[in-house]
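FAQ: What does the model actually see?

It sees only this:
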Amino acid sequence: MLEGLVLRNNTKLLLIVLDGLGGLPVKGGKTELELASTPNLDSLAKKSALGLHIPVDFGITPGSGPGHLGIFGYDPVKYQIGRGILEALGLGLEVKETDITVRGNYATAERVKGRLIIKDRRAGRIPTEENRRITQKLSEAIKEIDGVKIEVAPGMEHRVAVLLRFPYELPEGSDRIRDTDPQREGLEPIEPAGENESSERVAKVVREFLRRVEEVLKDEPKANYLLLRGFSQKPKMESFEERFGLKACAIAVYPMYRGLASLVGMEVIEPEGPGIQEEINTLKKLWHEYDFFFLHIKKTDSYGEDGNYEGKIKVIEEFDSMLPQILELKPDVLVITGDHSTPSVLRGHSWHPVPVLLYSSYVLGGTSERFVERECLKGELGMFPSVKLINLMLAHSLRLAKYGA
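And it is asked to produce this:
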């Protein structure tokens, strides 16, 4: 639809993603956004266009990959990408056509009457430094299985990326392997199995890898096992600049989101530090070098998954306190939203529409009093598919020509 319509100019577009932003009532009938004190967001909301976006489809709960692909303007149903490729790229691993990548969670497991039972899917969110030590131990012990080279890279907290490099190019569909994460404590990990002949060859290597992982990590008090999710091959995609005419960069702390941005051709910039302020400092330094900026804030989602609504509220309030610094940059188009909703009451992602605020010189405005879910329902953007968000950003930056005569 956008082919031939995209224009180039000097406008600056900024997309800020508060991961898992949307919520449900947690106290006194109010959501985390409604409970938070957000004077700066509320002031901006009064002169912005508000609405709600649907990441994949009504009633469908999205993962972080589909959630971000949608707001980047790529149909998440067409581009089904496993978390492994995102984690691997985000950690700086080179991924080839001979590779299978997968995201891993260090977990706490225990043998009970011969059965391996998962006690903690995230190993107590071990510190990143501990992750590095354990990953080094694993990497030294498992380098190759049946001619397949194994690379394990540490991520943040309990997360890792695993790369399997085969001695030959893999046919399409070799990544169709069941995740091993049972998604709940107290259950056995799921045995990785392939859906076809080529993916079953990969799954056989994975099964042996996990057997060795359990042996190598058996003396670790917390991180003594790995759960694997998102087996994936290297996909073929049109770059963000080719598609939308925008020179783009991504500022994100967590590897998976850097990987997603890298996948669509954004230049990935590691922020000065792990905090929101350090991310904003990095944004300020880069402001004159790019057209489009993607800034990712993770902890809203982490606290939502932990059921910690107070923690989620604090992150929202922390961001709100720093919003004036962002507004001082005078972006031509500013969007603040989430990739999906993570209500604390559900302790996980949900299917609920995601709040979105769009600020530019060309909005109607004056329809909403606060940046909260119920006020977004009143906004001029209405409820729309996430994949259309980039269209709105391009239009509000005057980067789309008229369609037709």
